[in-house]
From TrEMBL:
Positions that bind Ca(2+): 386, 388, 438, 443
Enzyme class label: transferase
Matching Gene3D superfamilies: Immunoglobulins, Transglutaminase-like
Keywords tagged on the record: Acyltransferase, Calcium, Metal-binding, Transferase
Subunit structure: Homodimer.
GO molecular function: metal ion binding; protein-glutamine gamma-glutamyltransferase activity
Domain of life from the UniProt record: Eukaryota
Organism of this sequence: Engystomops pustulosus (Tungara frog)
EC numbers, comma separated: 2.3.2.13
PANTHER family: PROTEIN-GLUTAMINE GAMMA-GLUTAMYLTRANSFERASE (PTHR11590), PROTEIN-GLUTAMINE GAMMA-GLUTAMYLTRANSFERASE 4 (PTHR11590:SF70)
Family the UniProt entry places it in: Belongs to the transglutaminase superfamily. Transglutaminase family.
Reaction catalysed by this enzyme: L-glutaminyl-[protein] + L-lysyl-[protein] = [protein]-L-lysyl-N(6)-5-L-glutamyl-[protein] + NH4(+)
Protein known as: Protein-glutamine gamma-glutamyltransferase 4
Length: 687
């Protein structure tokens, strides 16, 4: 009588534990490639030596042996190490435990299993797919990461921080990556199916990460998230309102339509989630004073007028207070040796690469060495972290415009490149992974190398070695508030110090503007132009004052977090010595207070209270509180309307945790006047 399989037990609990997939909110078996997993197969009678049993795994819509989408494994057949195989581990009566090994280079995705025991005698596991992921624990996988703490952070940690703000005021924004939440893994594979990526390409983390950098933005392919920097987000959610990625991915999976709206940190958060979810180690990376070089000449032209105001329409280049992208960890068999390890990818739609909005992966080592011709998009990322900045002064005389170079600044782009540290809730500075130390000979050498690989020779002039330092002359310093509570006046002092031994006549130009994090100017607030004599070794002080009314109106009109920028330019009478200084002053916000116990138990209720007091002198209109706790509760929104100065509101959630472990509650407050208030609190849940 022909043998027939009657049941397959996927031994989900044991396998998930071995494969580090227990956290996924998914009822199916999830395993990682290149590592054995066990199945218990039940047959309709006792097994004998003569029985021939085979397992067949298929993935994709047209499974074929030739492209690796159909794998046929005879039990106990000879096999190469690191290749697919199935071996009997144990059998007892009608039950047989089989150990299946997959190739460390297998296609990732959903597989279906059939047990074949004779011609036409097939048992199919039908609607129970097995999910196969990349495996950073497996030495033969191209995403292998040797350090366990790093794997825990970059693959398994589902919460973290994304760094925002400005280089003088770096803020940690709590972010729920949520790669294990319901539907997230299914959405990743749905995106891959829709992308039309050939099955064979789905083995390769280089191609997968490049493809996902495209699929996360909605440009070209109706991908996950639509970028918007207009300041008007009425058609969807404001980019500042998100607390994490999983709500975005779940919404996309449900509607199959792009989610509105994101800016760079949201794109980065979503791609960290997607990469960690499919098993590629990933981190969100923030670059402060980040250049966006539109002409690929590795220099950023920055124009100011004779009121000290930045001019937006002179050049499409820009310098963002910060830009967030990602590093993913993998080998680069497609490159010469030496470029394995972290690779930058970027899902924020900025410049098309090979015709579509995608960026990377490009090796951090290649960027550090200036090897900008190496794929993919190394030139663009190099410019972001290490372009030179050329400051121009645009003067009008007799109806004609004159452009003067104020200075060539080689150290101001690419500051404090930051990511969350491994295993600690701290910021880690990774600038030296991207470039040699600023000011070093090596840094200039790298820049020269990069320029040598450009198509045009446009930037060679600026790649010349720096001019010898000039004798001490005029030095500018700005003192005053480091942060400004909205509604308060701003008062700053420009200190012009004459370090030389003779009196100097100096023209001082200063302009104060309101800007977004991408450097876009929203309003001009104040300007001062003065010519003063500064005696030898003396300091002259020039005050700059801005009343609250001057900026508050613009704050309510633009739905972004804004900052104040001050530009100062000094020129000595003879025009021999030019100097400039710029300062970004962020707004300071009242805190959200989160109160809850430090520990809790599974399925036991606890209360979590969010309190906000408006300590500002202005009313806050349309206050909305967004809160989320992975494994405790999904994103919740509370509308609190207008909150007067001194006013308090409180929101409360009764939580019933479902999973054990350290859990984080994240809160985000947005209002018409101000954005960017976040808070978090950790609770330890035990069984
Ligand atoms: Ca896209
Ligand atoms: Ca440029
Ligand atoms: Ca530099």
């Amino acid at each position: 009588m022909a043998l027939r399989a009657t049941n397959v037990d996927f031994l989900k609990q044991d396998n998930a534990c071995q494969h580090h997939t227990s956290e996924y909110d998914n009822s199916h078996l999830i395993v990682r490639r290149g590592q054995p997993f066990q199945l218990k197969i039940t047959f309709d009678r006792q097994l004998t030596q003569r029985d021939k049993i085979a397992l067949q795994f298929t993935t994709g819509s047209r499974p074929m042996k030739s492209n690796g989408t159909l794998i046929y494994l005879e039990l106990n057949a000879a096999s190469h190490p690191n290749d697919w195989c199935a071996k009997v581990q144990d059998y007892q009566g009608k039950e047989c435990t089989v150990s299946v090994n997959t190739s460390a280079n297998a296609i990732i995705g959903k597989y279906f299993l059939s047990v074949i025991t004779g011609r036409g005698v097939v048992y199919m596991t039908g609607d129970c797919p097995i999910y196969l992921l990349c495996n950073p624990w497996c030495q033969d996988d191209n995403v292998y990461m040797p350090n366990e703490d790093e794997r825990k952070e970059y693959v398994l940690n589902d919460t973290g921080y994304i760094y925002v703000g400005s280089q003088s005021n770096i803020k940690a924004r709590p972010w729920n990556f949520g790669q294990h939440e319901e539907d997230v893994l299914d959405c990743c594979f749905f995106l891959l199916d829709r992308s039309g990526l050939k099955p064979a390409a789905r083995r390769d983390p280089v191609i997968l990460s490049r493809k996902f950098s495209a699929l996360v933005n909605s440009n070209d392919d109706n991908g996950v998230l639509t970028g918007n920097w207009s300041g008007n987000y009425g058609a969807g959610c404001s980019p500042t309102s998100w607390t994490g990625s999983s709500a975005i991915i779940q919404s996309y999976y449900k509607t199959k339509r792009p989610v509105l709206f994101g800016q760079c940190w949201v794109f980065s958060g979503v791609i960290t989630t997607v990469m960690r979810c499919i098993g590629i180690p990933a981190r969100s990376v923030t670059n402060f004073s980040s250049a966006h070089d539109t002409e690929e000449n590795l220099k950023i032209d920055f124009y100011m007028n004779d009121r000290g105001e930045k001019l937006d329409d002179y050049c499409s280049d820009s310098i963002w207070n910060f830009h967030v992208w990602n590093d993913v960890w993998m080998k680069r068999p497609d490159l010469p040796s030496g470029y394995d390890g972290w690779q930058a990818i970027d899902a924020t739609p900025q410049e098309p690469s090979e015709g579509i909005f995608q960026c990377g992966p490009c090796s951090l080592t290649a960027i550090k060495e200036g090897m900008v011709y190496l794929p993919y998009d190394a030139k663009f990322v190099f410019a972001e972290v290490n372009a030179d900045k050329i400051e121009w002064l645009v003067k009008e005389q007799n109806g004609e415009e004159y452009l003067n170079v104020i200075r060539e600044e080689k150290k101001s782009i690419g500051k404090f490149i930051s990511t969350k540290a491994v295993n600690k809730n701290l910021r880690q500075d990774i600038t030296t992974e991207y470039k040699p130390i600023e000011g070093s000979e090596e840094e200039r050498k790298t820049f020269q190398t990069a320029c040598g690989h450009l198509k045009s020779d446009a930037c060679l002039v600026f790649a010349a070695p720096p001019a010898p330092p000039s004798p001490p002359g005029i030095k500018i310093q700005v003192t005053g508030e480091k942060e400004l509570p909205p509604g308060n006046p701003l008062s700053l002092n420009i200190l012009v110090e004459n370090q030389s031994n003779e009196t100097k006549t100096v023209s001082v130009t200063a302009g104060c503007q309101l800007q977004t994090y991408t450097g876009k100017i929203i309003a001009s607030l104040a300007s001062t132009v003065q010519t003063i004599d500064v005696a030898a070794k003396q300091v002259a002080t020039i005050p700059v004052n801005v009343a609250a009314d001057q900026y508050m109106k613009s704050m309510t009109q633009v739905d972004d977090e804004l900052m104040i920028r001050l530009n100062v330019i000094t020129e000595t009478k003879e025009g021999q010595e030019k100097n400039s200084e710029c300062l970004v002053i962020p707004f300071a916000y009242p805190p959200i207070k989160v109160e809850m116990p430090e520990t809790g138990k599974i399925n036991e209720d606890f209360h979590c209270t969010f309190t906000f007091k408006n300590t500002l002198s202005i009313p806050l209109e349309k206050c909305e509180l967004h809160v989320e706790g992975l494994g405790i509760f999904r994103l919740e929104k509370f509308n609190h309307g207008d909150v007067k100065p001194g006013g308090i509101f409180r929101s409360k959630i009764i939580c019933a945790p479902k999973k054990a472990g350290e859990k984080k509650i994240v809160a985000e407050l947005i209002s018409k006047q101000i954005k960017g208030i976040h808070a978090e609190k950790i609770i330890n849940i035990t069984n």
